């Protein structure tokens, strides 16, 4: 079992410094914080014993680790989670986390006495899953899930990717690109599998992963448009990516959908905006995944028996104004 002493040795600092980084990061120099965070990530450190002692007493606090706010999906789900939890008498401690900050966010989060945790940023292979299970902390993931296929709420991501690519195929597009995020997370991993199943083969030059922010999406778009034969359509692994691609394309005076068809996945509220009208794939029920997840988590917290939650929402294409026949 990895200890704080191991982290201190790995980072070349004292245990006291490790403790300060976990509890009062604002009091530690950025260079030192970075070293400790790197050590935590390398060693996959989570302070088990201390965290167990903190969850022995009842509390009405839920910790939410959410993806970043530039993605409208997380704005909508966070609002739904906080509002529902408050109505049920719970407070929610919200942290907006980038993937490269997860190890430190996990270590910090479970040092607080909590009734449960809700996560939208878990990796397919992630130590936190085993840690929370071992400590008997009620938890659930949404949008993403762990490879163990337990305690999650999601849309059918493989089918979403398949339907998005199939929609473009049926419109006559043959040169279809894919822009997505990290393949270490179930959402983008499964959506890309679905796209491949629909298209059969994708040329490597038309596939770009690991777009973590708007700047990287802009670079991905430029890379595709600079090809000798650019794509006529793009499947975007999330609506946030599709909206970013639309923004860059409009600024480049590329006509959508006349010159480039774009389809997203998630069906966020912004995609339905009258001035945007993004074609996308989303839940048939149009239920907010964050709301579903917090409802299930509170059931787990308030019942001694904790069933294994496995919810996958069926999906469909919401055909709007950003795709047309090639």
From TrEMBL:
It comes from the Bacteria. This is LacI family transcriptional regulator. Signal peptide: none annotated. One of its GO terms (molecular function) is DNA-binding transcription factor activity. Residues 2-56 form the HTH lacI-type domain. InterPro entries: HTH_LacI, LacI/GalR-like_sensor, Lambda_DNA-bd_dom_sf, Peripla_BP_I. The keyword Transcription applies. The keyword DNA-binding applies. Keywords: DNA-binding, Transcription, Transcription regulation.
């Amino acid at each position: 079992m990895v200890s704080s002493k191991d982290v201190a040795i790995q980072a070349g600092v004292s245990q006291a410094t490790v403790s300060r980084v976990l509890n009062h990061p604002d009091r530690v120099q950025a260079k030192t914080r970075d070293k400790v965070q790197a050590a935590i990530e390398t060693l996959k450190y989570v302070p088990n014993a201390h965290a167990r002692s903190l969850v022995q007493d009842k509390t009405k606090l839920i910790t939410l680790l959410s993806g970043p706010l530039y993605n409208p999906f997380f704005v909508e789900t966070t609002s739904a989670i906080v509002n529902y939890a408050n109505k049920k008498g719970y407070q929610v401690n919200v942290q907006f986390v980038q993937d490269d900050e997860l190890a430190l966010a996990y270590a910090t989060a479970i040092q607080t006495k909590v009734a449960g945790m809700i996560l939208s940023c878990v990796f397919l292979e992630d130590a936190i899953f085993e840690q929370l299970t071992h400590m008997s902390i009620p938890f659930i993931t949404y949008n993403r899930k762990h490879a163990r296929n337990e305690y999650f709420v999601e849309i059918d991501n493989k089918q979403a990717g398949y339907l998005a690519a199939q929609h473009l195929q049926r419109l006559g597009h043959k040169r279809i690109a894919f822009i997505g995020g990290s393949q270490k997370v179930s959402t983008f991993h499964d959506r890309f599998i679905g796209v491949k199943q629909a298209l059969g083969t994708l040329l490597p030059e038309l596939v770009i992963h690991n777009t973590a922010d708007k700047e990287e999406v802009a670079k991905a778009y430029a890379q595709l448009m600079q090809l000798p034969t650019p794509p006529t359509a793009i499947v975007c692994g999330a609506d946030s990516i599709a909206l970013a691609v639309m923004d860059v394309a409009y600024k480049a005076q590329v006509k959508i959908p006349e010159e480039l068809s774009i389809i997203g996945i998630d069906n966020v509220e912004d995609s339905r905006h009258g001035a945007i009208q993004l074609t996308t794939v989303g839940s048939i029920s149009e239920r907010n995944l964050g709301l579903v997840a917090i409802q299930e988590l509170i059931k787990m917290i308030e019942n001694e028996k904790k069933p294994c939650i496995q919810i996958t929402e069926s999906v469909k294409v919401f055909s709007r104004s950003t795709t047309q026949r090639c």
